[in-house]
Structure formats: structure tokens, C-alpha cells
Amino acid sequence: MKNKSFFYIFLCIIVAVLAGCGHDEDEELEKQVDTFATAYFNWQFPHCRAYVTDSSQVWLRYLSSQVNEMDVDTLRARETGATVEIGSVDYGEDGSSATVAVTVRDVLMMDTIGHVGHLVDQLDYVIPVVRERGKWKVRLTSPLRPQ
Q1: Quick one: DSSP state of residue 141?
Q2: Where do the domains of the chain lie, and which CATH numbers do they carry?
Q3: pLDDT tens figures, 47-98
Q4: Minimal CA–CA distance to 105: which of 51, 44, 37, 50?
Q5: Gap between the Cα atoms of 84 and 63, Å rounded
Q6: pTM exceeds 0.85, yes or no
Q7: Do 124 and 37 form a contact (C-beta atoms < 8 A)?
Q8: How far is C-alpha 66 from the geometric centre of its chain's CA atoms?
Q9: What angle (nearest 5°) sits at the alpha carbon of residue 58, between those of residues 78 and 29?
Q10: 49-57 long-range contacts, Cβ below 8 Å, gap at least 24?
């Protein structure tokens, strides 16, 4: 009887520890994506660098090169920036990748070259993330596009 009690207590401790680890991982993932998305959708591309994979850096440089003076003036004239809301997180089968649904409000969308960006009330995105060197990082294979 003593062995059964010990087994059940040990089992409860293991379940509690494993459940807690998943929660911390979710929080870390959501925090990384929230910080990245807030910078990205407010056109602060240099601030995004710490939150993306090494292979994604090229896309941040590309986006930075597309910003013109009219866009900068429009961004500076805004009283508030874009806001993001993290939605569902869907983990890949391997546990080292996921997609995160993000709703962006009051975002200035890039337009074609020579034209100033335009404001959009709300857009939904799915942002891919992967584990890189033990941390969750956004993986860009192109500029993010709304759903």
C-alpha cells in the first residue's frame, strides 16, 4: 500500500511539472511573436532582428529598403501605432515548429513603389515560428501577407 501511495504522488508531481513546462513554453512563444509582430507592423524592422531566424534577416533588409520618405512621414504623423493580438498557436508534429494566428489593427500597409502606404483597420496573419538554438524565432520566407 505504501508503494502505491508513493507511485501516485510521484505520478501527480510528474504530471504537474510537465503541464507547467508546456505553459511556460506557450508564454515564451507568444511573447516572442507579440514583440516581433508589434515591431514588424509598426515598420521597426531593425527591432525585429532578434526575433527572426538567421535565414529571415534578408527579408527584414528587403522590407527596410522599401520604406520611402512619404512612408516615414505618415508613420511619424500617427498618434498611435498598429496593435497586435495573439490568437491560436498550432504546434507542428515535431514540436519544434508552430504557426501563430495574429490579428493586427490600425496598420499602415506598404503600397507600390512611389506611393504612400494606406491604413487598414484590421488584418489577420499566420506567422510561422521554429525553434532555433533553443529559442522560438519567426521564420520568414517572404514578407508576411494577410490571410
Answers
A1: S
A2: 2-138 (3.10.450.50)
A3: 999 999 999 999 999 999 988 888 888 888 888 999 999 999 999 999 999 9
A4: 37
A5: 19
A6: no
A7: no
A8: 21
A9: 70
A10: 51/137, 51/138, 52/137, 52/138, 52/139, 52/140, 53/130, 53/132, 53/137, 53/138, 53/139, 53/140, 54/132, 55/139, 56/137, 56/138, 56/139, 56/140, 56/141
